[in-house]
């Protein structure tokens, strides 16, 4: 377990970059990441696995919502995806490498791997290969236990966290087991706080960040029960609740 990850909770984390709710600056684009760097916010982003074995920054399994065309993102190569516009803007689907070259360690990165059971061969290795040589704080996380286990088995040199939600004891029990492989933090849905699972982690000094905070009530919920927020749709520097 990583001992020094204080950087994870030092500043607000911009959900899918510092976008404007997909009006002019869209989620998971180089424009949103550049805007976050300029504001000094940490960046949360999502990775999908293109058909040529290259990790790309994209949230959805399909292209409809973000690119307005049908199709499975995993059926496209990274080169094909790099030609597709996001939301009709000038932004295209970026590779992980493109984002790293833009951020250059200026702000922390919290990277979520979007797994697909039975179709993730090589995904973890491709992410770690791309990250090799990158200088700057990076954490990796996922909802998907098989990816988390693979990261830990490889001996990943970055903090690894569980992305999660839940409001029932059986869910918390399963999450305790998932954390027991040596995970370093959790990113939890703010509306399901407080709960025994996250309270137990914090009592051991394990950080809890929240997702996705969009208003002052959610900010208060976060800072009463967790250590930092993943936010979107507002500027944390302008709110009284943070």
Automatic annotation (TrEMBL):
InterPro entries: GP_PDE_dom, PLC-like_Pdiesterase_TIM-brl
All copies of domain GP-PDE, residue ranges: 10-242
One Pfam family matching this protein: GDPD
Alphabetical list of PANTHER family matching this protein: GLYCEROPHOSPHODIESTER PHOSPHODIESTERASE, CYTOPLASMIC, GLYCEROPHOSPHORYL DIESTER PHOSPHODIESTERASE
Protein name, UniProt field: Glycerophosphoryl diester phosphodiesterase
Higher taxonomy: Bacteria, Pseudomonadati, Pseudomonadota, Alphaproteobacteria, Hyphomicrobiales
């Amino acid at each position: 377990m990583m001992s020094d990850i204080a950087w994870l909770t030092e500043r607000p984390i911009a959900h899918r970059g510092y976008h404007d709710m997909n009006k002019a600056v869209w989620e998971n684009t180089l424009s949103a990441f550049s805007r976050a760097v300029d504001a000094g916010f940490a960046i949360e982003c999502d990775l999908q696995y293109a058909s040529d074995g290259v990790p790309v920054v994209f949230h959805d399994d399909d292209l409809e919502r973000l690119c307005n065309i049908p199709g499975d993102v995993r059926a496209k190569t990274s080169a094909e995806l790099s030609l597709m516009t996001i939301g009709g803007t000038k932004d295209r689907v970026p590779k992980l490498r493109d984002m790293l070259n833009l951020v250059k360690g200026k702000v922390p990165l919290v990277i979520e791997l979007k797994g697909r059971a039975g179709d993730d061969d090589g995904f973890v290795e491709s992410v770690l290969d791309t990250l090799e040589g990158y200088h700057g704080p990076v954490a990796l996380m996922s909802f998907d236990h098989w990816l988390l286990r693979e990261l830990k088995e490889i001996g990943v040199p970055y903090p690894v966290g569980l992305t999660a939600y839940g409001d029932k004891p059986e869910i918390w029990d399963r999450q305790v087991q998932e954390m027991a492989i040596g995970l370093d933090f959790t990113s939890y849905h703010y509306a399901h706080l407080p709960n025994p699972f996250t309270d137990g982690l914090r009592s051991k000094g394990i950080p809890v960040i929240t997702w996705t905070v969009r208003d002052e009530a959610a900010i208060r919920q976060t800072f009463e029960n967790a250590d930092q927020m993943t936010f979107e749709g507002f500027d944390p520097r302008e709110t009284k609740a943070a």
